């Protein structure tokens, strides 16, 4: 069994949907896919992805990204209702959102959001960042929302992790900002405050993870920091095809 990973499929774009449909039907039938969020903000496209991928892989493991929880194109009251609908779709199509075990290997999903532990959101970011318009989280700000998600994540006391010798974790959001390469221009660093939370870093370390897959930034990365290898394999928008790999990456 092999483990592959990809994130940020953004199937709202026809070119991205075409790539998904041309994936080989039988090459990955014994393998596992980590799908690290941002498939589509439209439920029908999210379900299309689940159907296509579960036909090709032995198991598909998923965490929702921020785009998956937008409600601007859905008749839903808020993003909590969208989250419920997304999770219902995973159950309907056999997509895993819990800990996956195969012998001594455990693959652990970590939910998250952003809590400004990577920086403060300025007026430019508040005006430009689409989540502020397309998500609705009644009763929560981003800091309490991050706690809402991360408090649901497993700990080492979970029975599903007993005797696991190899642990891979994955999230949509970044667990630490220094996974971003130093070459990023200063003007593009304005989005750093909404990239993730240091809570995820603490949690993956406590779990004993040695490989962590994440998405969200659209900056493909394979870097080892303090004993953990961090992998971002974002498919990205068609306009980003010149710097994203636009293919599955073999994780384990």
UniProtKB/TrEMBL annotation:
Q: What is this protein called?
A: Metallophosphoesterase
Q: Where is the signal peptide?
A: none
Q: Which organism is it from?
A: Dyella nitratireducens
Pfam families in UniProt: Metallophos (PF00149)
Please state every residue range assigned to the domain named Calcineurin-like phosphoesterase.
1-219
